[in-house]
Design brief:
This protein has 14 helices and 9 strands. By secondary structure, the protein is an alpha/beta fold. The chain has 2 domains: 219 residues, Spore Coat Polysaccharide Biosynthesis Protein SpsA, Chain A (Alpha-Beta Complex); 103 residues, no CATH class. Helix 2 links the parallel strand 2 and strand 3. It starts with a strand and ends with a helix. The mean pLDDT is 94.
Length: 328
């Protein structure tokens, strides 16, 4: 079974050799590694070429060059289009994978042949529990049940990570459902995973650490201004709100209302703000959350109300909706 590892490369000279070497050191070698050069201005690609030139093994390396800088989403899309593997794996060029990452993920495929996505556990440096999986029993499997997958994602404590990386994904599943990344935005994983969750029927999560995520100060996300970040998040929230449909409609709305309040201080300065506000306020009335609907009318004028909605009312409503949803 062939796996395609997709690595977008842009301005990562300090880290990219570590990343490529983690692919070379894999215990499973029926691999192709697609490196997408997004017109990196530094010597990142030269370093990739040097590492590959010294390699003598069965892994097939391909370097695909963009003719101009198009962003992370476009680089991943190029990788999907060029890949020939049965499964795909997204790896960011400033991170690395454990030497047995692909073997461990494929072991779950072999024991659960219908699975469309296998998610490994992540360790972050510096350490942050946010990136680790939390299910009590591993492997955590949901087979042939899209409704259940929606239930466990759109809930108060989702067990399915948002990030595209560290997921072994059946290539035909992505292609058949046209699950490409929206180009021209950051936080692209947030929109992509929404579409993925609404399409997939089988997913497994394993407890083995397969990915090492490095949090660095000059990454794409942390280097962007908070306002620019919120601009893109507002676009994503609005797009998702327009797509929401049954089942699990109420929990989806509450799930993304929580996103709205998390980014609220900056989202309120975006051109999408009023549209998002009107949709969410109407949804609160539709689901008979009248206190929330009333406070929505006032929250623009009071930080105390924002705080109450953000940390008390919306989480409590989401928790209650989650409990009811999981029982149904």
């Amino acid at each position: 079974m062939k796996v395609s590892i997709i690595i977008p490369v842009y301005n990562v000279s300090e880290y990219v050799e570590r990343c490529i070497n983690s692919v070379i050191n894999q215990t499973y070698t029926e691999l192709e590694c697609i490196i997408v050069d997004d017109c990196s201005p530094d010597d990142s690609i030269k370093k990739c070429e040097n590492v590959i030139a010294k390699y003598n093994g069965s892994i097939c390396f391909k370097i695909i060059h963009h003719d101009h800088n198009r962003g992370l989403s476009a680089a991943r899309n190029t990788g999907i289009e060029k890949a020939t593997g049965d499964y795909l794996f997204f790896l960011d060029s400033d991170d690395e994978i454990s030497k047995d990452a692909i073997e461990l993920l494929l072991n779950e495929v072999h024991s659960n042949s219908n699975v469309e996505i296998v998610v490994g556990n992540t360790y972050s440096e510096p350490h942050d529990d946010y990136y680790e999986l939390t299910p009590n029993n591993f492997p955590y499997r949901i087979n042939n049940n899209n409704l259940q997958i929606r239930k466990v994602f759109f809930c108060n404590q989702s067990v399915i990570p948002v990030m595209a990386w560290n997921k072994l994904i059946k290539r035909n599943f992505l292609l058949q459902n046209k699950l490409f990344f929206k180009e021209g935005i950051i936080h692209e994983d947030e929109l992509w995973i929404y579409d993925v969750v609404n399409c997939t029927n089988s997913i497994s999560l394993i407890n083995n650490y397969t990915y090492l995520y490095y949090k660095r100060p000059n990454s794409i996300t942390t280097n962007s201004s908070l306002q620019n970040s919120a601009n893109h998040m507002a676009i994503i929230i609005l797009e998702i709100l327009h797509r929401i449909n049954p089942p699990c409609e109420e929990t989806q709305v509450l799930f993304y209302t929580r996103y709205y309040f998390y980014h609220y201080p900056y989202i309120r300065n975006t051109k999408e703000y009023r549209k998002i506000f009107r949709i969410l306020q109407k949804k609160m009335v539709k689901y008979r959350h009248f206190q929330a609907a009333f406070l929505f009318l006032l929250h623009r004028f009071s930080n105390r109300i924002v705080f109450k909605l953000k940390y008390k009312i919306i989480p409590e409503l989401l928790q209650k909706a989650t409990e009811q949803q999981l029982k149904s």
